[in-house]
Amino acid sequence: MNPLPTRRGQAGLTLIELLVTVIILSIGVLGLAGMQTASLRYTQDSYLQTTAMNIAQEIVDRMRANPAAVDNGTYGAYAFNATDTAPSAVDCTTGCTPAQVAQNDAFEVFSYFQDVYDLGADKFVPALPAGSSAAIARSDIGDDAYFTVTVSWPHTSANVATDEGGVRNVMLEVIL
Q: Model pTM greater than 0.70?
C-alpha cells in the first residue's frame, strides 16, 4: 500500500496572507489621501497669503507713483473692504490732480474686495474671501512718513481640534 503523497513546498498565497496584504495597502492609501488633503489646504493658504501680499505691494506702488498725494496726506487713512462704499472712479483722460489720482487708486484697490465695475455676482470673484479688508495707516516721525499697509482675511481650519481659525494678515511697512 502506498502512502498519500505529501507536498514538499507551498505554492500560492493563503487567505490570511492576502488579507494582511490588503490591510497594509489600505492603510498606505489612506495615508496618501490624508497627505493630499493637507497639501490642498496648505496650497490654498499659500495662495491667499500671496494674493494679500500682492495687494499690499500694489497699494505701496500706487503711493510711490503719486508722491504729491503722499506728501499732502491723501493716502493717510484708507480702509478697503466689501461693506464700505467705494469711492467713485475719476476720468483722468484729460489729466488729474494728485488727489484725484489717489481717489482713482482707492477705487482700483476696492475692486479686489467688491464689484465696483458692476459685473454681476456671476462674473465677479473677490481676490480674497468674504470678510477680507485692507487698511493704510500713516505716522509721521520727523520728516519721514511711515506707512503700514495691512491686508487681512479670515482663515478657517479644517482641524477643529487645534482651532487654527481666525484672521490672517500681511503687513507691509514703508517709509515714503
A: yes
